[in-house]
């Protein structure tokens, strides 16, 4: 009887231990929720919805996009960080919630380095430095020279305090040795309107937003604020090429799940996202939005990239003494 009881206990333990593996092998058996931590209608939301459509085939289940906006992406990101780690709630994150906000906000309920299981890095949206045509500069050297000779003569617009368009200017001032005035706005639209009207001198914005104005001549492009040139403006040199070595403030996109999500589930999601990004329709969407696909789309690659971005922006934010309540 004792031997039978021991055998039963050991068998039960083995079954319990095997349960997660079985569940992972069967995954997914229900729709998956892809949380976008920003309002509907923006470029992040649009890309997430197109990817969600293409994910249904490799996963065999619908992927439903759910917007949970607020606090610069923190609300939706914290929601996912606290979700059950079963692969059915995942986050479409960007530079803010996955790298910048941890150093920017005084209170944050998650840490992008420890609260998530990385799944895949999608790519990045290059930023571009543009100036109002009245600014007497056509390249980086001329702009820096003018800024130093006229310390009160230039200003840059951003979509708000702590936004990547704000921090891009902080990093620029640090690296270029300039003191260009920051003027925050409530969103990209108002900032762009005042830049076009000449109320501010320059701005760091995404290439998709700037491109029509650059082509029409209402804004002048000084350089790409990313590591590499863009296919949308292949003739435009990066700021790094022009002298600000290593300058890169592109907005990146990455998919993460709650910490503790089983490795087989992460691998299955990673494979599905890679298959979706190989879809010709998705490639066309990425090209139209000016998004450059990531070279390393592995979970490990995203994890290392998040770590490096957190460190980079922590230094910039600390040196500038920036914080958001």
Word description of this protein:
By secondary structure, the chain is of the alpha/beta class. The chain has two domains: 31-124 and 251-320, Bordetella uptake gene, domain 1 (D-Maltodextrin-Binding Protein, domain 2), CATH 3.40.190; 127-224, Periplasmic binding protein-like II (D-Maltodextrin-Binding Protein, domain 2). It is 46% helix and 18% strand. The chain is built from eleven helices and eleven strands. It has helices spanning 2-26, 43-59, 74-81, 95-104, 140-149, 164-176, 188-197, 207-216, 263-277, 280-288, 299-320, and strands spanning 32-36, 63-67, 89-94, 116-125, 127-131, 155-158, 181-184, 202-206, 220-224, 251-258, 292-293. The strands form two sheets. A six-stranded mixed beta sheet has the order 2-1-3-10-4-11, with helices on both faces. Strands 7-6-8-5-9 form a five-stranded mixed beta sheet. Helix 2 crosses helix 9. It starts with a helix and ends in a 5-residue tail after the last helix. Mean pLDDT is 90; it is low at 4-22.
Q: Evaluate the radius of gyration.
A: 23 Å
| H-E string | HEHEHEHEEHEHEHEHEEHHEH
What is the count of structural domains? 2
Strand order of the largest sheet: 2-1-3-10-4-11
Number of strands: 11
What is the terminal-to-terminal distance?
65 Å
- Helix percentage: 40-55%
Q: What is the overall shape? A: globular
Low-confidence segments: 4-22
Determine and state the CATH class of the largest domain. Answer: Alpha Beta
CATH architecture of the largest domain: 3-Layer(aba) Sandwich
Strand proportion, as a percent range, falls in 15-25%
> Mind telling me the CATH superfamily name of the largest domain?
Bordetella uptake gene, domain 1
Average pLDDT figure: 90
CATH topology descriptor of the largest domain: D-Maltodextrin-Binding Protein, domain 2
Query: Mind describing the biggest β-sheet?
Result: 6 strands, mixed
The assigned structural class equals alpha/beta
Number of helices: 11
């Amino acid at each position: 009887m004792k031997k039978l009881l021991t055998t039963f206990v050991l068998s039960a333990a083995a079954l319990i231990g095997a349960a997660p593996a079985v569940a992972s092998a069967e995954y997914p058996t229900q729709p998956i929720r892809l949380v976008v931590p920003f309002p509907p209608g923006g470029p992040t939301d649009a890309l997430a919805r197109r990817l969600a459509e293409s994910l249904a085939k490799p996963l065999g289940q619908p992927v439903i996009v759910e917007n949970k906006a607020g606090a610069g992406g923190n609300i939706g990101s914290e929601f996912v960080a606290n979700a059950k780690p079963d692969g059915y709630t995942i986050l479409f994150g960007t530079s803010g919630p996955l790298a910048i906000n941890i150093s920017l906000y005084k209170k944050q309920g998650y840490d992008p380095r420890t609260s998530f299981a990385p799944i895949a890095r999608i790519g990045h949206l290059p930023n571009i430095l543009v100036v109002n045509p009245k600014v007497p500069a056509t390249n980086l050297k001329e702009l820096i020279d003018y800024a130093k000779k006229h310390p009160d003569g230039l200003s840059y617009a951003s979509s708000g305090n702590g936004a990547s368009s704000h921090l891009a200017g902080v990093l620029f001032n640090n690296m270029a040795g300039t003191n260009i005035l920051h003027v925050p706005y409530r969103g990209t639209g108002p900032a762009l309107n005042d830049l076009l009207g000449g109320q501010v001198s320059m701005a760091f914005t995404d290439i998709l937003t700037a491109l029509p104005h650059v082509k029409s001549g209402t804004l002048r492009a000084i350089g790409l604020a990313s590591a590499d040139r863009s296919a949308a403006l292949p003739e435009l040199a990066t700021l790094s090429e022009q002298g600000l070595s290593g300058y890169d403030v592109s907005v990146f996109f990455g998919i993460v799940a709650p910490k503790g999500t089983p490795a087989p589930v992460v691998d299955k999601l990673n494979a599905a996202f890679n298959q979706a990004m190989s879809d010709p329709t998705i490639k066309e969407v990425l090209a139209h939005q000016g998004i450059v696909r990531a070279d390393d789309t592995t979970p490990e690659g995203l994890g290392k990239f998040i770590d490096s971005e957190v460190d980079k922006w922590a230094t910039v934010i600390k040196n500038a003494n920036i914080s958001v309540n």
